[in-house]
Design brief:
Number of helices: 18
Largest sheet: 6 strands, mixed
Helix content: 55-70%
Structural class: alpha+beta
Oligomer: single chain
Distance between the termini: 58 Å
CATH topology of the largest domain: Globin-like
Order of helices and strands: HHHHHHHHHEHEEHEEHEHHHHHH
Strand content: 5-15%
CATH class of the largest domain: Mainly Alpha
Number of strands: 6
């Protein structure tokens, strides 16, 4: 494609606009992220905290790359962005079989970015002729940059697909995917390919990180720590994506031990499924772990390690985040924004069967102190606790996982 440089005045305006792109408004970035993750075709990506975080990083990478190119050489054709961030996204999407649907995310992001850019352009000049030329040049630049990047990413995905047909990790991933999808793969054949026994009890885990700076070897360390805590010398670990490991062990993990050892790698997060049995249990425990992971991401919960037993109720109650927030506000009233010790007093009191002595012991506080906190909390509730015990308890549990307090 031929590429003529615009006049110097237009190039200067383009450079000034690109400088503004490097400092986008937070609400505009939120809109961009929402657009690239919206729609049924991208639902699986939006629900996966690792992939969703990667897409958000890619959005920012795309913006910075185009803007930096136009600051450095305004008006010149911007080459495709083949940096570490977009290539990592391509690799992970191929590994999950989600690559084709995601190429449309670039174009969804383009439409939002173009609206933001037009808003910037109208702050640079009010001259009608300059506006016409600047919009024509910049829209052509953005469209060409996105098309070139999509083509380059598609080519990278083709190479990733070819790579996935070879090697031990690919064989494990293929066999596990078939088992999880319920394909007619005999357990004996699967066990041979995986080196993992499918009979008996399983505890599945998802180990991941949404920290872009994590050393990915730390995720493998976390998988090893889980196996040690479970007393299983032969766990099954599958490389689900660059920043995600799927793990199965045969022993129940010692959570106290795992908390102590995993604290050394705080960027690694661990979601653990319920104990399940045999081949069906292999699948179901994995889906349990995915449910835990998605709930932690949905609520922005800060917990490093969580089990399905911990979160089963909260996961069900928060499937619709907006309605869950409305439920919490209605059940707690002013208690929702009260000091954390008041909410924890009520939460512990209910968990102790409304026994103040037992609750005070769990909180390591004097019984009279607990009673004073309960009395303060009672005044903040819209309905007396005794008349609304279950909704208040459920709302406090949701808020506990959301805030960590």
């Amino acid at each position: 494609m031929s590429w003529d440089l615009p006049p110097s005045r237009i190039r200067e305006l383009l450079r000034r606009g690109a400088e503004l792109v490097l400092h986008p408004k937070p609400e505009w970035l939120d809109e961009l992220d929402a657009a690239t993750l919206a729609g049924p075709a991208r639902q699986q990506v939006a629900e996966d905290p690792v992939l969703a975080a990667a897409i958000r990083r890619s959005n920012r990478s795309n913006l910075r790359y185009w803007a930096a190119a136009n600051i450095r050489a305004p008006g010149e054709r911007v080459p495709a962005d083949l940096g570490d961030v977009p290539l990592a996204v391509a690799r992970d999407l191929v590994r999950r079989g989600l690559d084709d649907a995601m190429l449309g995310a670039y174009r969804s992001g383009q439409s939002v970015a173009l609206r933001y850019w037009i808003e910037i352009v109208f702050t640079l000049t009010s001259d009608p002729e300059e506006l016409q030329v600047l919009l024509d040049v910049s829209c052509r630049s953005i469209a060409t940059y996105i098309e070139d990047t999509v083509d380059a990413i598609a080519a990278q995905m083709d190479r990733e697909r070819a790579d996935l047909t070879h090697g031990t990790h690919a064989e494990r991933r293929e066999a596990v995917t078939l088992l999880l999808d319920g394909a007619p793969l005999s357990p004996q054949r699967a066990q041979q390919r995986l080196g993992y026994r499918l009979e008996g009890a399983h505890w599945a885990a998802v180990i991941w990180s949404d920290d872009p700076d994590i050393d990915l070897a730390d995720l493998d360390r976390a998988a090893d720590l889980l196996a040690v805590a479970a007393g299983d010398p032969r766990p099954l670990t599958v490389l689900a994506s660059a920043a995600t490991r799927w793990v199965w062990v045969h022993g129940e993990p010692d959570l106290a031990r795992l908390h102590a050892t995993a604290a050394e790698i705080p960027a690694a997060r661990i979601a653990i499924g319920r104990r399940r049995v045999d081949l069906d249990g292999f699948r179901r425990s994995h889906h349990d772990a995915l449910t835990v992971q998605r709930m932690l991401a949905r609520l922005g919960a800060p917990r490093q390690i969580a089990t399905y037993a911990d979160v089963e109720l909260v996961a069900l109650l928060t499937a619709d985040r907006e309605r869950a927030d409305q439920f919490v506000a209605g059940a707690l009233g002013d208690l929702a924004t009260a000091p954390p010790e008041l909410r924890e007093a009520v939460r512990t009191f209910v968990a102790a069967g409304c026994n103040a002595t037992a609750a005070a012991a769990r909180l390591y506080t004097h019984r009279n102190t607990l009673l004073r906190r309960l009395a303060r909390a009672e005044r903040l509730l819209p309905v007396p606790l005794a008349d609304n015990l279950i909704p208040v308890a459920a709302a406090l549990e949701i808020q506990h996982w959301h805030t960590g307090t």
